[in-house]
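Protocol step 6 of 9: fold each sequence in the batch and record its structure tokens directly after the sequence line. For illustration, a two-sequence batch is reproduced in full.

Sequence one:
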Amino acid sequence: MENNISKIISNFLLVFVAGYADTATFTSGNEVFSAHVTGNFVVFANKLVHNPQLSDYRILLTFPVFIVAVYFTGYLNSIIKNERSLYLIMGTILAISGLLAHFIGKNYAIESVVNFYIVLVVVFALGIKNAINKLYGKSTFGPTTVMTGNVTKATLDFCHAFMGKEKDVDARKSFWRMLILIVGFLIGCISGALLSAQYGLVVLLIPATLILLYYSLFFSKKEIASS
């Protein structure tokens, strides 16, 4: 029971952080997605048809930065093979982005190159998070960054669990797990938007601190084995 509760907390935390960071950088990072980087292709394409500027092209840098972060994580994992350590590294890099925003970024406009570089640090951190999710998939109920697949699965699970003559117990269990991910992500999005709009990207210190505290003090490998 304890392991199940711990796994629920860790899953909620991971989707909260993703939604929080993604919305914070979009709100106070000149409309750049840090977790859902392919969303930046949509943002870029939209800018191309609305009085495009040379500076609009730099958003494409988020993609290679994300790829480098994923490769870095895969390589590092082949050496240390430690989920906790990888999340602590991710949390540290996310904290660095918040500190940079506080000590440097606050002196520059949202549209500035300096602010964009800070956002790239966030992208790198979230790239690590995405890679960990793939490397240690058993630790989570599903993808913890992009919710499209989770919404699809939750809908199908709901259909199988609550509709029709035969009720699928496993589908019902899966539905509630997906709901935890979706709701956690939504709460993260709302929190990231409200706080970053008021205080800027320094608020990334909040999810960074949560990650560092949880994976330093509470994370257990037993969570992976729990169902």
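Sequence two, same batch, same settings:
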Amino acid sequence: MNDRTCIVTRQTGTPETLIRFVVGPDGSVVPDLKRELPGRGCWVTAERWAVDQAVAKKHFARALKQKVEVNPALGGMVDTLLARQLSGMMHMARKAGEFVTGSSKVDIAIRSGEALAVFHASDAAADGVRKLDQARKAFQMMAEEESPIPAFRPFSTDEIEVLLHENAFKHAAALAGKAGEGVVKRAMMLERYRSKTGAKGKAAMTNK
């Protein structure tokens, strides 16, 4: 089997489209999102349904060629880790000046072309989302882009407050730069993980 072949779909992929799992010291299967942990590993398509299927059908023991302990909630654990990665990168981007919050600042970032992506709380007021959607459409037309700046709704207001504390937001934007690009990359990973064959998930990306 190719080093990077999903143990569920048997399809090859890249580190960006697969999640590596290894056996921990206690014999349990753990996700290795940074692909740094030692030991024999295996790969699973970076989508929740694939991880859940690997757990249900005992693919890990076969792929790792040993008896392993698999937490039935492994799929949820991965979701939590991906969410923490995203919020952590948001913190870093904020410190680097590449992540702004507040409707007014986001509107300016969109219309100036600085915004790489827009973020809304999943329970943000429809009126606030609509106004920023209008800004995205206006910039798309002005810049003659094929599609508007992507928008994500990965977390509820309560989740944002827990993850980001004083940096909590209803509306935010990732700006051009290495840290801002990192935010978008991790948002896309979380969106993909929570979706199934393109179906909208909790962190569904909208291109209205």
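Proceed to step 7 once all outputs are recorded. Observation for sequence two: The longest strand covers residues 18-23.
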